[in-house]
């Protein structure tokens, strides 16, 4: 056999697998313990990451859920600067090329924020500040809208960047750790909340996921990212009751580990 044939076969296989397109949008609620980290893989091959969890579990979860040659994150959205959302991120910048970083304008003097800012400078990166109502178009039938991105509350949770991702007629709502006061603020706007999938706010805390908010979102699937035996008792039974009352299917990383949800733009494929 010609000695070039074998490498050519390998390269062809690699080329075809690299270019393998799927029509499905994949949303992976990563198993990072008590914290948030959500990987979104678009049908056009873009990777979006919302938050980075509390430690380097983020990197092992990314390694498990991205092909080995995928070293780019097209968009990183940081909902807010609490440890359980950002501690996996400094190492992310060492291992992946992060092309766009989106944050609210909330800047603080605290240690974690400074650590993150220093890392950005070291990597010659800068973050883009987003505001409520802003839209990011990824493809013809895929975009997201920022529903909230305050920068003036003392409690970081209130400053959570909230985004609603639309894929055809399927919507996903990601709420960070937004409490009910923030939910009420969105309810008072004319921004659309209705979504098939809701990432439950603040790991299932009873201070998030108010009744009116849940009614407006009217989700089929509710995903809670929380860690086993976490010291906050998340998810709180009050939240679980409210979710049960609206009849959504509850999924929880604490019990199920990694949760993958697929959309073809018309239906969900959990
Ligand atoms: Zn949190």
Salient structural properties:
single chain, alpha/beta, 9 helices, Metallo-beta-lactamase, Chain A, binds zinc ion, 270 residues
Describe the structure.
27% of the residues lie in helices and 26% in strands. With 270 residues, the protein is an alpha/beta fold. It has one domain (22-269): Ribonuclease Z/Hydroxyacylglutathione hydrolase-like (Metallo-beta-lactamase, Chain A, 4-Layer Sandwich), CATH 3.60.15. The protein has an eight-stranded mixed sheet with strand order 6-5-4-3-2-1-14-15, with helices on one face. Strand 14 (259-263) and strand 15 form a beta hairpin. The longest helix has 14 residues, at 5-18. The protein is globular. It starts with a helix and ends with a strand. The mean pLDDT is 93. The site of zinc ion has 7 residues, from helix 3.
CATH architecture: 4-Layer Sandwich
- How many beta-strand elements? 15
> Could you tell me how far the N terminus lies from the C terminus, measured between alpha carbons in angstroms?
46 Å
Question: Main β-sheet: number of strands, strand sense, barrel status?
Answer: 8 strands, mixed
Structural class of the secondary structure composition?
Answer: alpha/beta
**What's the shape?**
globular
Overall pLDDT level: 93
- List the uncertain runs: none
Total individual domains: 1
| Element-by-element helix/strand order | HEEEHEHHEHEEEEEHEHEHEHEE
Q: β content, as a range?
A: 25-35%
Tally of individual helices: 9
The CATH superfamily appears as: Ribonuclease Z/Hydroxyacylglutathione hydrolase-like
- Into which percent range does the helicity of residues fall? 25-40%
CATH class equals: Alpha Beta
- Output the CATH topology: Metallo-beta-lactamase, Chain A
Q: What ligands can be seen in this structure?
A: zinc ion
